[in-house]
Amino acid sequence: MVTQAPRPLRLSTLLDQQLWFIGHDIRHADGNALTRFGFERRRGSAGGTTCYQLASEDPARDLVCWGFGVYVGPVDNAARPAPHDAPRETPRGVFLQRHSLTPRLLSGPLALPLHQPSELPLLRSPVTPHDWHEVQSALRHLAAELARYEQWARDTLGTAHRAQVLAQVPRHKRRRFCAATDLAASWDAHAMVSTTTDVRPRDTTPRDATTRSITMRRAATPRYSTPFSGAR
After folding, report:
1. Which of 44-48, 56-60, 95-99 is predicted least confidently?
2. Are 153 and 136 in contact (CB under 8 A)?
3. Where are the domains of the chain?
4. pTM: predicted TM-score of the whole model, two decimal places
5. Which residues share a beta bridge with 97?
C-alpha cells in the first residue's frame, strides 16, 4: 500500500495547530510534556504568558515558544552565557507571530524573560535577499525542531491523546488543520525545502524606511487558543 503524503499546509496554519497541541501538552496528566522533552519553563507574571526555551547546540538557534508565537535565534539570559569565541557580528533572530504569514527580524539576541507581545523589542520586516536567507534558514530550523518534538510527543503521549486534542479544536478551525498523525511529517516537509514560499510577501520592494521597522502590536488571543499562562 502506498502511503499518501499529508496535504501541504501554510506555515501559519501549521504553527497555529502546533501551539494548540502544545497548549494541551503542558497540562498532560503525566506532567508537562515540554519540560519532559527538554524545554526550560519561564513562568509569566499575572496576565503574562509562560514562555518555554529549548537550547540548541548552536547558540544562534535557540527556540522560544509562547502562546502568541515562536522565536528562533540567539537568546540573552543567564542560562546561556556568551562563549568566549563568539563572532563579532551577532546573528539576527526571527520571530513568527501566531496567525501571521510574515516573519520579523530582530537586530540582536532576544532578552529573556519576556511574557507579553508588547515586551518584544523593535522588529523589522525582511526586505533584502540576505534578510530572506536568514529568515528561511531560521524557519527550516524551526520546522526541524518542531518535527522532532511532534514525533516525540506522538510516541510518548500517544496518538489517542493527539486525536483527543485535535477533536477539541472548533470545527471551522479543524477543517484547516492536518490529521494529528501528519503533523510531524508536515513539519519535516517544511524543513526540507530550500525556500519557504508561503511566508515571503508578493512584493518585497521597500517603500520607505518607516515600513521596514515596526513595533509589535499587542496580539489579541482568540477565544479558541490555549495560551501558556498558568501552565504547570
Report:
1. 44-48
2. no
3. 12-81+89-214
4. 0.78
5. 69
Taking alpha carbons only, the member of 83, 144, 77 closest to residue 113 is 77
Longest dimension (CA), the chain: 55
Cα 4 to Cα 21: distance, rounded to the nearest angstrom: 23
- The 10s digit of each residue's pLDDT in 167-182 is 999 988 888 998 888 9
Q: What angle do CA 135, 94, 124 make, to 5 degrees?
A: 90
Q: Output the nine-digit C-alpha cell for 122.
A: 523593535
Sequence length of the chain is 232
Amino acid at 8: P
* Cα 31 versus chain centre, distance: 22
CA distance 227 to 16: 11
> Burial letters for 69-87: b for 16+ Cβ neighbours within 10 Å, e otherwise?
bbbbbbbebeebeeeeeee
C-alpha cell at 62: 535557540
Helices then strands, counting H and E runs in the chain, come out as 7, 10
